[in-house]
Amino acid sequence: MLVLGTRHSVLSRTDSYVVWHSVEMTLDSWLPFGMHEDPQKLYTALHDGVPEWMEKSMRAWQHEFLLGLFEESDSALSRLHKLEHQLRTAVKVPSNVSSYGLADAVISEFVWHDKELVLTDYLLSIADLEKLGGWEHIRKEIQGGNNRLGRLETTLKEAGSKWTLGVRTAGKLGLVQRVPEGVQTAADETMRSSGHAGRRLAEAWGAAFGIEPDPAKAYGLAVKAVEDAALPKVSLKPNDHGTLGSVIRVLNSAKYDAADWTLGFQREDKHYSNGQTLVAMLKTLWSGQTDRHGGDHELVNGTVISQEAAESAVMLAVPLVQWFSSGFVVESGTSTKLTPE
Predict the structure, then answer these.
(1) 267-268 and 339-340 as β-strands: parallel, antiparallel, unpaired?
(2) Taking the complete model, does pTM exceed 0.70, yes or no?
(3) Within this chain, do residues 77 and 123 fall inside the same structural domain, yes or no?
(4) What is the rounded distance in angstroms from the CA atom of residue 102 to the CA atom of residue 65?
């Protein structure tokens, strides 16, 4: 059996001749010999950093990118200095070195400090998303694997990296944590189709799952993304603040039953309405932001936002932004219930 990428050929023998069959194969159905009994699932686990089996391909990609960067610059040394300034890293460079040697020197410096992914993330951030057609276009190009970004994504995926390409801080391309494909697809679609709320959600995603996560920033942006999507759908009183807390009060109504709001379902639980479910989700997001007010949250009250809380907030914000932006949150205007189950 020969494995060639995701397609392999199977050699079968009959009484008088040999036949080659072309068969589709996925990594989900194939493991190297001896790995099927791996009790710790080490082969299929996602790996952080740059494991030894990814070193050559990762450094080849970095070298190709850096070589192009230096050769296309008016001054290779000036471009190197900009890299040093932005990454707060001094690169040891021999005198009279070529662009090829500069690329080698940069990679060696980051390998020495075990920061190869920091370098890769930085190189990705240089890409101009608008000139490349936006993230949605880039994502489709990456899936083809035939361009520079696609080759990197292929390397990360084949090597079992926990990192993948995505939109990170300040709308820049970068490395973000790999999540289940269906979750990523739903999140990408929400970010793409939800206007300003979607763009804010993309920043929250990058802050939560990026190479240098910022939990507090991620949680705050997740709340703001939901506010961006929800506020245009509700009527606040003149003295209400434009916050998620105000949205919750409007949806809850004076009876705290959210009776005048529902979601795009045909039936609902007879004990707990769709409106109440929506409010409960909003309350969970709003109440969980422990650093919403000022103060030293780490030293004084121990309420610093954790990474787990930030990731949960961003994941919760995805359906909320999608529901509000797509018109699935409906104000009925009456207390009429859907058909109870």
Answers:
(1) parallel
(2) no
(3) yes
(4) 12
Burial of residue 75 (number of CB atoms within 10 Å: 0-12, 13-18, 19+): exposed
Check whether residue 34 and residue 112 sit in a common domain: no
Strands 18-24 and 7-13: antiparallel
Residue 63, SS3 per DSSP: helix
Judge whether 195 lies within some domain: no
Structure tokens at 100: 């090829």
Please state, in angstroms and rounded to a whole number, the distance separating the CA atoms of residues 92 and 303.
42
- Looking at residue 21, its pLDDT comes to 39
pLDDT in tens, 186-240: 888 888 888 899 989 988 998 888 888 899 999 999 999 999 999 998 888 777 7
Q: Residue 15 is part of which domain span?
A: 1-45
Rounded to the nearest 5 percent, the helix, strand and coil shares of the chain are: 50, 10, 40
- Are residues 138 and 66 located together in one domain of the fold? yes
> Does 336 map to a domain?
yes
